[in-house]
What does this fold into?
Amino acid sequence: MKIKDLFSRYWPLFLVLLVGASLRLSGLQQNPISLFSDEVDIGYQARSFLSTGKDYQGNFLPLQFHSFSDVRTALPIYATALVSLIPGVTMDLAIRLTPAIFSILGIVAIFFLANNLSKLFGFSSPKTGSSFGFWSALVLSIIPWHFTYSRIGFELSMLFTVYLAGLFFYTHFLIHKRVWAIIVSLILFSLTPMIYSTAKLALLFIPLVLLLLPGTKEHLWGKKLSLWLIILFIPLGVVVINGGAARRFNEISIFTDPTIPTEINFLRKEDLGPSAPVGSTTDLISKATHNKVLSVLQVFIKNVVSPISFDYLFLQGDTNPRHAVQGWGMLEKALLIPLLYGLYRLAAGKHAKFLLFVVVLSVAAILPSALTRDGATHSSRIFMLILPLVLVVSFGFDQLFSYSKWLTALVLLLLFADSSLYLHDYWSHYRYTSERSWSAGMQELMQSVSRHPGEPVIISPKYEYPLIFYLYYTGFNPRKFQEFELQHTVYNSTSGNFNLDGNRIGDSDLYIATMIDYQNKPINPLPNAHYYLTRPEVDTSDIRSVAAIGDIISLPSGEPLYYEVHY
It folds into this structure.
């Protein structure tokens, strides 16, 4: 097909892509205001892999990258490493350009997927089907939830796009009966556990999701089922055997929450009343009312309901500044109109199969997160909820456009105004209100540290634990750090020597420690040492009277963050 014909056929998609790509690529390194520790970790892992073929803990060609406090999925790091090889792309840029690229590809994927779903479920003509694809691409390109994650070095944009592509190729198989399409589809689905940890649980829902697509039972759900499931779950089995997945889930599961027993005991003591003698035991009713099973069930129900609440979707959103702009929902408020209209039209009964498909997608998105302690409104863990929301909103727009073009134009005008206000907040205020959440100042701190090669540097960990920032921004040789890991000498206690409470990192010049005595000059200080202390440490002590202040590292808003101190 010629480029002219291609543009003529898909000009609505190209128009939406222009908007979506502009929003995602503009000022990518300026907002969010700096690289968060998880982003820096991805960068150092990618750098370690490119230079040594190993993660920075020394594992060769890892299926899971081992970081300081977590086990990271492999594909986002491999993708970041590849993007960093593009001429002119620095590692800093690659960390955020990688998810931006995948998010733009996601807009393309949902356009074609929505059109295929329209054909399979038969709720529109081929002409209107293209309209459904257009609405889906448009909605995805502008909603705050997808937009926010497309600009940060998290794995979710990649996961979402791979999942959409898997669904698209599967629907392509159902429509055109091409075997290669289903093989590509299942391979893409099977890779999702290697992109994001929570996807390991979501993968279990994929067979049910596919079963609900018209044509699956006739063409697939028979003798070939075992073969398809083997293809689908092989990578999951490899990842689980490789280790890390079970440990990570155990750390965040609602079933292992250490605060639950304490809360239960407190409530049972309240049932006894203030005058109960020491050693009193609670009665059967109190034990039946306050126990671990009911406590876990209450948390689970809250985690299931909260992601679909009006407050979360349209008013307050995620309270974590790294996940959302504070004071904004995950969707624009104007989208409430097509969302409700879409639900109304689906509930009318003519499209019951499509409604069931959307419900199952929603359950598959919410349930894995609901099993985690803070999963109620953890936008990363329920990121896949974007798909059913976009489909329902787009269905509402599609139906509304057929009913009244003038009313649709009014909703679009409200959406434009709402989106403009959101973008103003994002670019004018969010950069500074979220600066601490994005580890602002750590790059500048390490630039100051780099000016003292060969001299001891002591960094206080009272703002952010600085090790990964030091390794990344000073260009610390990954091979040397792998030697520290191999010899188990990463952390070497200072044991109070040099007036320091903390650790020396390997045999490097870096000490991550706090001072034992801020008031007096150390009797046996490290020669030519440079101390980087946080503002509260300097302001609440008399260290200025015994030491001199050098560099002042400030937040982008101007607030002092670290002081360089030397004797």
Observations:
- The chain has a mean pLDDT of 87.
- The CA atoms of residues 342 and 392 lie 5 Å apart.
- The longest helix spans residues 91-121.
- Strands lie at 64-66, 71-73, 457-459, 491-493, 500-505, 510-515, 530-534, 548-554, 560-566.
